[in-house]
């Protein structure tokens, strides 16, 4: 374990040279290695280091938010990302990058390089995303979700795991504030929107007490439900694709919560892409269907094949399990609808917005796309209790 | 902190003599003190030590279950009881005994002596319980429940508190096994029942897949919901009464979970008393109503007076808060009904049974009381989704 210092390209290469296993993966001598910064997320520094034999992706926390150095942020976030990879590795296999090294002193993760891949949001904006990626994301959520559920493991294991991620306070604080509070607060300085086009829509969102009651229910659901280990930030910028290969990255927001949070967030990002780009909506609807069926199939398969060491469901007979599964999927869908609504609103008028909107063909289109996102978001939150299957969800978009 | 050894009356008195604050409360010299064992619970040793100036109640863990020395059990349970008292003291005031001393090495709690009080279950069986005690228990659950809810405190505080009690593994294991699993398992050696009178009722309970699906939902609700800090074992043996003064003791099962668990467990114990003793049912129904209104009033009052530092509800307007409260109480009642059902069944045919049954006037009455407890238990579990207010609950008893 080393003492923390932010590593630039030179310092990072020198550090890797001290680690035999990683040096061997790069091959050749350190002088032949190149380090290229690829950070495009909000929070951390990411370098790709390449050598004659291979390459590595190195991610390090900074003591502040990368895009806003005035916003101090504890370094520990990469540790939670590493714990997330370690916890899910066996259940999700190659759907996340392999973790090759963790330095808890430097708050440095070294992982499999996915430079052949492209960030999904970029691919969607540039128009070269391979159709069908969402099925893989659905499977990922299904496998990760079941493996960390009360049905799969004794509660003692899960309490211990929940404890680990319950220390992920600063990023959970971001979720609670940015996703489920700030956008609804008049005068909150972190909000911004296309003005004056959306002024009246935003004013409605901020004064609608029925909507606020729906948001309150989702706040409670997010904090008060420990259904599974969530990714916690599963938008299209947390996925990298290369043909059929779909990987989920950036699990630093991992926390136990309701599965509909991950699914709903991903769906909202597909919806925004569908609104922002011409002739895109029906494809995105197909992706949403694939996400949901991929999730249901994977989760149901794990459930059916469960060897039964969990405490929940130990009494269930096969016939009742089928009912129980149907009830479970209806519940996840209700959550999913509500959390999708939160994500639509916060990515349209909150602190961290979806880049997809800026790719609209013109400002009028962009304004309309954003307006639709706000209204669909509201509808999903207010009506979530009635949205219990994929047809009802698609109807509400 | 001292090294652990089980203290008998002599060793306990000698130990107290080394502690000036406690010695002062007892007054006089140690030779004038008397120690009287009053253990009547299942798990721990309890002594009342009296001196010329006052008395103390001393509770110590044993490395096994007191009533079953072959059943090893970690000592730490008194630590959780102490944490529970420390956590709730400010919110519930005199409704729990004052914690005077904790020795984490001896696993010894010294608390306010309630020898003027009587254990509620005993008072109910002996017929000298003061009517109306349940209102106080309802208030206790309401105050404790709100003070440890997402509405009352920032999630960072509650995650930390939840972590503390999530280590309460051995007692939570008892709850999961004895309350929500074993009774439904054919051939489980911990079950016993009035045989042959109840053989066919028990066989039904153990082969009813609709019931087992209901139990499964409650397992999930108990483990997957962190609504508030529960007492975790709130039966009539965990309450001591003296006229108007009603105290809740024995919080060693404390864990975060759904509030309906505490309320439902208490209700079930009132129901069993009502079934077991002649001319008792309508009084017990009144107590159940008082419990519920006491709970609702206390919880609503705390909610209305909330200064708003919690993360849930930060956006709510007063008009929506009223709706939100109604929804909340309906949800708690559904849980309450289901958990009351679990408690009725496990106290009638599981490991730890309600002593009230043995106080029935004759065996035929006892058998009928037990049969009713099993059938009401089943009905409450299977129908809990439809039981949303106190009238519906009373109708189902
Ligand atoms: N394993 C990887 N291989 C290649 N590039 C990666 C890898 N992980 C992240 N990246 C690149 O780094 C960027 C930022 O990574 P991300 O984990 O999203 O950081 P942040 O935590 O700052 O959001 C990604 O958008 C992607 O371009
Ligand atoms: N503070 C107290 N004052 C007087 N008697 C008490 C007090 N606490 C417990 N007791 C007596 O000790 C008995 C056992 O205590 P309890 O906390 O229920 O133990 P256990 O954890 O073994 O169930 C109670 O039933 C009651 O008679």
TrEMBL record, chains A, B:
Cite the entry's keywords alphabetically. Answer: ATP-binding, Kinase, Nucleotide-binding, Transferase
All residue ranges annotated as the Aminoglycoside phosphotransferase domain in the record: 35-273
* Signal peptide range in chain numbering: none
Which GO biological process annotations does it have?
methionine biosynthetic process
Q: What is its EC number?
A: 2.7.1.100
As one GO molecular function, the record gives:
S-methyl-5-thioribose kinase activity
Source organism's superkingdom?
Bacteria
At the top of the EC hierarchy, this enzyme's class is: transferase
Pfam families registered for this protein in UniProt: APH (PF01636)
- Family the UniProt entry places it in: Belongs to the methylthioribose kinase family.
Q: How does this chain assemble?
A: Homodimer.
Q: What is this protein called?
A: S-methyl-5-thioribose kinase
Q: What species is given as this protein's source?
A: Swaminathania salitolerans
Taxonomic classification = Bacteria, Pseudomonadati, Pseudomonadota, Alphaproteobacteria, Acetobacterales
């Amino acid at each position: 374990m080393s003492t923390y210092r932010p590593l630039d390209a030179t310092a990072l290469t020198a550090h890797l040279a001290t680690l035999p296993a990683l040096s061997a993966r790069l091959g050749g001598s350190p002088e032949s290695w190149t380090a290229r910064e690829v950070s495009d997320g909000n929070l951390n520094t990411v370098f790709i280091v390449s050598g004659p034999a291979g390459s590595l992706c190195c991610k390090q926390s900074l003591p502040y938010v990368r895009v806003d150095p005035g916003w101090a942020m504890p370094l520990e976030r990469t540790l939670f990302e590493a714990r997330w990879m370690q916890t899910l590795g066996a259940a999700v296999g190659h759907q996340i990058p392999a973790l090759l090294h963790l330095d808890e002193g430097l708050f440095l993760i070294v992982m499999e390089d996915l430079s052949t891949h492209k960030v999904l949001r970029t691919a969607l904006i540039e128009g070269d995303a391979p159709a069908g990626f969402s099925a893989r994301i659905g499977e990922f959520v299904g496998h990760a979700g079941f493996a960390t559920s009360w049905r799969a493991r004794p509660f003692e294991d899960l309490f211990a795991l929940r404890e680990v991620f319950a220390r992920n306070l600063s990023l959970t604080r971001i979720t609670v504030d940015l996703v489920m509070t700030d956008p609804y607060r008049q005068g909150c300085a972190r909000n911004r929107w296309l003005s004056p086009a959306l002024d009246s829509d935003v004013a409605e969102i901020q004064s609608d007490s029925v909507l606020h009651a729906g948001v309150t229910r989702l706040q409670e659901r997010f904090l008060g439900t420990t259904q599974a280990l969530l990714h916690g930030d599963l938008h299209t910028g947390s996925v990298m694709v290369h043909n059929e290969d779909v990987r989920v990255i950036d699990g630093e927001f991992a926390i136990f919560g309701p599965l509909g949070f991950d699914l709903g967030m991903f769906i909202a990002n597909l919806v925004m892409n569908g609104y922002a780009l011409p002739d895109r909506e029906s494809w995105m609807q197909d992706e949403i269907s694939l996400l949901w069926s991929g999730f249901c199939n994977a989760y149901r398969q794990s459930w059916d094949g469960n060897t039964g060491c969990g405490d929940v469901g130990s009494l269930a007979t096969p016939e009742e399990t089928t009912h129980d599964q149907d009830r479970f999927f209806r519940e996840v869908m209700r959550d999913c609808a509500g959390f999708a609504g939160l994500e639509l609103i916060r990515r349209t008028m909150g602190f961290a917005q979806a880049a997809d909107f800026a790719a609209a063909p013109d400002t009028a289109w962009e304004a309309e796309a954003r307006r639709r996102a706000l209204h669909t978001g509201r509808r999903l939150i207010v009506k979530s209790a009635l949205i219990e299957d994929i047809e009802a969800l698609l109807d509400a978009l």
